[in-house]
UniProtKB/TrEMBL annotation:
Residues 170-242 form the Transglycosylase SLT domain. This is Transglycosylase SLT domain-containing protein. It comes from the Bacteria. SUPFAM superfamilies: Lysozyme-like (SSF53955). Pfam families: SLT.
Length: 245
């Protein structure tokens, strides 16, 4: 009797809300039963087992791209450094070549200048020689010219004598004849006659001949110069001779 009463008393149909609530309670109950059914040793095992590590996905493509970019940058920097060094080396070589070329030009210019100077010096020397030759004083071919030319030579050799002293002795000895010869005095008798303007014997002429004059006893300038050289040695000067000497 009671069973029927209860049945009738709760025979009202369940609403949707009631159904959801009942389902939730059922789920919680099942979970509780499952938890209580796990033994104590099972709890220890559960706490000691490490939970699996979550896997993290990385993109290697991005790393490769970054590495490639850095490599490219380093390569570019190396190329720039190499290019700078190459430019420096090229500049240094160019500077060295320029310096060498400048030194070579300078040396060539100095050599050319020295050559020009040598040529100019030689030319000046030749010109002086020509001028000297041109400036050599010419003397007339007469007694006055012979005496004057002899005096110029005597001056160069330090032989004393004057125009007047030479002229006086010439006029006494030969009257101004360069071909005069004495065939009657003691010298002639000894085979060495006096000859020329100042009547010089051959041995005396040879002994007192002055360089730069002909070795011809009859040459007027050579005869006068040799005689004056002898007179300077024996009498101090032709000016001191007033008779046969």
């Amino acid at each position: 009797m009671l069973k029927n009463i209860l049945t009738r008393a709760h025979s009202r149909p369940l609403t949707r809300t009631h159904k959801i609530a009942v389902a939730g309670v059922g789920t919680l109950g099942a979970a509780a039963v499952a938890f209580s059914a796990v033994p104590a040793s099972g709890q220890t095992a559960t706490s000691e087992v490490a939970a699996p590590t979550a896997k993290v996905a990385y993109s290697t493509e991005q790393i490769k791209d970054v590495h490639a970019g850095v490599t490219d940058q380093l390569a570019g920097a190396s190329q720039k450094v190499a290019a700078i060094e190459a430019k420096k080396q090229a500049a240094a070589e160019a500077a060295a070549k320029q310096k060498a070329a400048t030194a070579a030009k300078k040396a060539a210019a100095q050599k050319a200048a020295q050559k020009r100077e040598a040529q100019q010096a030689a030319s000046r020397s030749a010109q002086r020689a020509e001028v000297k030759q041109v400036s050599v004083k010419s003397y007339p071919n007469n007694l006055d010219g012979w005496i004057r030319e002899s005096l110029a030579i005597m001056k160069k050799h330090g032989i004393p004598g004057s125009y007047q002293g030479i002229h006086r002795n010439i006029m006494r000895e030969s009257s101004g004849n360069p071909m005069a010869i004495n065939n009657w005095d003691i010298n002639a008798r000894n085979g060495i006659p006096s000859k020329g303007l100042l009547q010089v014997i051959p041995p005396t002429f040879e002994a007192y001949h002055v360089p730069g004059t002909p070795k011809n006893i009859y040459d007027p300038v050579a005869n006068i110069t040799a005689a004056c050289n002898y007179a300077a040695d024996r009498y101090g000067s032709m000016d001191n001779v007033n008779s046969a000497y």
